[in-house]
Design a protein that fits this description.
Oligomer: heterodimer
Helix content of chain A: over 70%
Largest interface: A-B, 79 and 76 residues
Number of strands of chain A: 0
Strand content of chain A: under 5%
Strand content of chain B: 5-15%
Structural class of chain A: mainly alpha
Number of helices of chain B: 9
Shape of chain B: globular
Largest sheet of chain B: 5 strands, antiparallel
Shape of chain A: globular
Radius of gyration of chain A: 26 Å
């Protein structure tokens, strides 16, 4: 700062504010962030819809379908109505089953990324229409799935691992624009970038609200403060999916205390842990461990899936790419090992052309260095 | 950029105020003003298992009054435990339990919570018999006319829960005893705390509490697919 600036700090402060604003603007408008994370989230939210349909199939008619007229009086104070009236307890068993399976189909379409945004909107509409028919069977799982799915609809979550991406690449290679490509030329890039990134911020904020409110509100409870809280749901029938496992967990007082304090601590600390790389890794592992535990032990698998599916946006693109390279290398290693075994057993003949081309192909497909060496070693050992 | 910022800022602010519980900012803004934006799409509450987790097992049950079609003799069945049936068939040993995990528990929660909002006289009325085809309306009217009646919301919920559980019970009873004429349904809510932490792994529980309705005429749904409840009732004691 110059002497003049020291005397009058206003321009300096305004300059800093302007610099911060420009950084924020660049972050928001220049490129879409967490593109791999939202793509993985799409797969998991599609999987959620498929699992929802499968796990409820046996009881679909009693909860929402042709045998669910008993739920009609319970909707006396429902806040839902038109247009979410696709399902009706007046539907016959056949019609309801076909409508019900449509949700699974839309979920599958979302999972593979086929018309991703349209599929997401269809899944959202069908899910809301279905679950709100029966107020007795709605819970936090429905809330988080609905809110997150709505927010993710504003992101570009078909960019990776999707049929849409594959079709886009094919069109680009053939230089034949199709679909919305014509329209895209007229829309400046900062608009879709901005909508995507603003939706990302809203998703992250929603997660923080869930974790912080859930964590802080527990501090007021004497059972949480005394470290015994987790025992009570584990011992109640509603969350007792595997009685022997639950009993094993709560029979050890130390374990009950540890899990109780860990649950509160990780929920409150999670947003802060995201600020630094190593604490972020610990935070993500910790929160995932908590979700996996309540998913497996307490039968809240779909709720856990809905939360983990949103948490994956905090994993950086570089990490996904690194995981992709690792998986490809493992796949290649397994393929070579399998072929070598088959050749040794006389089931396959060594292809001289392929053998000659293999080292070059390997070098091109994996990172230079150890993986290539490891592949050669694995063949030599056999 | 400014429009996106305003939209985001509003959403973050509304979500914070809606979720934050009873804090000064929520009182200052007033949740009613946020309701048109938050409800129903962004409606949410995250005080899960807080301030303390639930520590009671709840059940909904019913029993039926049956008339023999040949000699006209009436019998009363044992209580049928709907919630226990759901636990055994849809919760235990299911890696991803179906929504049945909360179906009858949700109904049990409505039943107990709405009963708690009734006045002393209304609770007595609930225990009386209401028969005939228009009994749900009669029950609601009688509850409204109780000398110590509370505002309509307090008993409308209970009337709806009772009617709903009688409808569900009627469907199950018809599947269990198709050869008999169903003449009455009585519903019950049963609740018992899990053992204290010090007594975990034992059967030491406090005495259960029950809420039992009077007898109601069954509420059959015309044209219902009988196979739906025949499949559901498999394994229930007849």
């Amino acid at each position: 700062m110059t002497e003049q600036e020291t005397l009058n700090p206003v321009p300096f402060v305004l300059g800093k504010i302007k610099e911060l604003y420009l950084r924020l603007e660049r972050w928001t408008l220049d490129a879409k962030h967490a593109s791999y994370g939202v793509s993985v989230a799409r797969i998991l939210y599609g999987l959620f819809a498929v699992l929802f349909v499968l796990t409820n199939f046996q009881y679909r008619n009693i909860m929402w379908g042709s045998g669910a007229q008993w739920t009609d009086p319970l909707r006396w104070n429902s806040t839902w109505g038109f247009p979410f009236v696709f399902y009706s307890t007046a539907d016959s068993t056949l019609i309801f089953t076909l409508k019900y399976l449509l949700l699974g189909l839309a979920g599958l379409s979302l999972m593979v990324g086929f018309f991703s945004r349209t599929s997401a909107i269809v899944v959202l509409y069908l899910t809301i229409s279905l679950v709100n028919l029966n107020p007795a069977a709605t819970d936090a799982q429905d809330n988080i799935y609905r809110i997150m799915l709505l927010l993710f609809c504003f992101t570009d979550w078909s960019r990776h691992f999707s049929v849409d991406a594959w079709r886009r690449n094919r069109r680009a290679l053939s230089q034949k624009p199709g679909g919305w490509a014509y329209l895209r030329d007229f829309v400046p890039a900062w608009i879709p970038n901005g909508i995507h990134n603003i939706a990302l911020i809203a998703i992250a904020y929603q997660l923080f609200m869930v974790y912080v409110i859930a964590g802080v509100s527990k501090i007021a409870g004497d059972m949480w403060r005394s470290g015994t809280a987790i025992y009570f749901p584990l011992a109640s029938d509603r969350f007792n999916v595997w009685p022997f496992l639950n009993q094993l967990l709560y029979s050890n007082g130390f374990m009950v205390g540890l899990v109780t304090f860990f649950s509160v601590g990780i929920q409150i600390a999670f947003p802060l842990m995201l600020l630094q790389r190593w604490t972020r890794i610990i935070g993500l592992l910790g929160i995932s461990a908590m979700h996996i535990m309540i998913g497996v032990v307490m039968g809240l698998g779909l709720f856990s899936l809905a939360m983990i599916a949103a948490d994956v946006i905090f994993i950086r693109n570089d990490t996904y790419q690194w995981m992709g390279r690792k998986l490809r290398a493992i796949g290649e290693r397994l393929r070579i090992r399998y072929r070598t075994k088959q050749i040794k057993m006389g089931r396959l003949e060594a292809d001289p052309v392929e053998s000659a081309a293999a080292p070059a192909a390997k070098a091109a497909s994996v990172k230079p260095g150890q993986p290539e060496k490891a592949l050669h070693n694995s063949i030599k050992k056999r | 950029m400014a429009i996106l910022g305003i939209v985001l800022g509003w959403h973050l602010f509304a979500t914070f105020v809606w979720d934050s519980g009873n804090v000064p900012v929520q009182n200052a803004v007033g949740t009613e003003k946020l309701r048109p934006y938050m409800v129903p799409m962004f409606n949410q509450a995250w005080s899960v298992f807080a301030p303390n987790p639930e520590f009671a097992d709840a059940r909904v049950l019913f029993r039926a009054k049956l008339k023999d079609k040949s000699d006209g003799k009436e019998t009363v069945t044992d209580f049928v435990n709907i919630s226990q049936h759901d636990i055994d068939n849809a919760v235990r040993y299911h890696p991803i339990p179906s929504k049945m995990i909360i179906n009858s528990f949700g109904l049990a929660a409505f039943y107990a919570n709405d009963f708690a909002t009734l006045s002393a006289e209304q609770k007595k009325i609930f225990g009386k018999d209401f028969l005939g085809p228009s009994w749900p309306e009669n029950l609601k009217t009688t509850l409204a006319q109780a000398p110590d009646a509370k505002p309509a919301g307090a008993y409308t919920g209970m009337s709806a829960d009772d009617r709903s559980l009688v409808m569900l019970s009627t469907n199950i009873a018809q599947a269990l005893w198709p050869e008999k004429e169903l003449v009455g349904i009585q519903t019950q809510h049963f609740q018992q705390n899990v053992p204290n932490f010090e007594d975990r792994g034992t059967d030491k529980r406090s005495a259960p509490s029950t809420i039992t309705s009077g007898w109601r005429s069954p509420l059959a749904v015309s044209g219902i697919d009988p196979s739906v409840y025949q499949d559901y009732a498999k394994g229930l004691p007849r």
